[in-house]
Amino acid sequence: MKTTCVFLLSLMVSICAFSSCTKSTAPTANPISADDTIYGMSMTDVEGNSYHTIKIGTQIWTAENLRTTKYNDGTPIDTNWQQAIGAYCFAPWYAVMRPVKGDAADAAAFGCLYNLFAINTNKLAPIGWHIPSDSEWSVMVNYLVLNGYNCDGSTDTSAPNTLAKALADKYTWRAGSFFGCSIDSGSTTASEMKNNRSGFTATCSQWRSLQGTIEYGNTFGDYCTIWWTTTMQNGLQKCRQLNIGSDSLMTFTFTPISDLWSTTYPGTNGYSIRLIKD
């Protein structure tokens, strides 16, 4: 009997050594490669950068922020943010892995930040893709709400959404972030493993201010990511924002260029971009 028990214990150890018992969930340089989401076809920009995509309802979105440094006609995008021209910078970030760097290596995972002049050229997206309007973001939000992705389980599209946790990736937000989601309040880093049920994989990419400084929160919360839309209403540009202080994917408006900034800082803020298939 003793010999049999020893044999069975040895067999169990051997099986565990070749099974998921040894699987690690440690962060990697790219949150896409560390995630277990099943992504769709890839999209390629003018520079040859490849992007994972995700189907949400009837829409197909890129599951990564845009990181091209050239327009779709091959023209380089400027890096001078002190002129009224299109400009980009590498997206810096501060997350659970390491301090802010803001270089090409970070761009591979977190994308670039672009000003509104670059958006308005209509030359950032490759053929067959485009920067979404605010209403296209709303289509995605409504689909996710109706299909049970809200943190609080509600399916009322007329109420504020609680989708932040379902959109955020698992690795790049501050440890212990629960996005105001009460089911994870007070939890530790294990709560991040519940993120990204939608597959949208929203990384913590920050934003660039008019003054040229990199912002980690300011009035938008502790840490955040902001995406441009192509929608302007009453002179205000609509954007979408995710931050750890809120359980919602929020909409806010941005004044592109005011008299206050037109002389000293003629550019606009720098935000991230997601693309949607035509």
Attribute tags:
278 residues, disordered N terminus, two-stranded antiparallel ribbon, three-stranded antiparallel beta sheet
How does this structure look, described?
By secondary structure, this protein is of the alpha+beta class. The termini are far apart. It is globular, with a radius of gyration of 21 Å. The chain has a three-stranded antiparallel sheet with strand order 10-11-12, covered by helices on one side. A two-stranded antiparallel ribbon has the order 1-2. It has helices spanning 2-17, 31-34, 104-110, 116-119, 134-146, 164-167, and strands spanning 43-44, 50-51, 53-56, 59-62, 88-90, 112-114, 129-130, 207-208, 214-215, 224-233, 236-243, 250-254, 276-277. Strand 8 (207-208) and strand 9 (214-215) form a beta hairpin. Helices cover 17% and strands 18% of the residues. It has one domain (41-277).
Task: Give the secondary structure arrangement, pairings included.
Blueprint: H1 2-17, H2 31-34, E1 43-44, E2 50-51, E3 53-56, E4 59-62, E5 88-90, H3 104-110, E6 112-114, H4 116-119, E7 129-130, H5 134-146, H6 164-167, E8 207-208, E9 214-215, E10 224-233, E11 236-243, E12 250-254, E13 276-277
Antiparallel strand pairs: 1-2, 3-4, 5-6, 7-13, 8-9, 10-11, 11-12
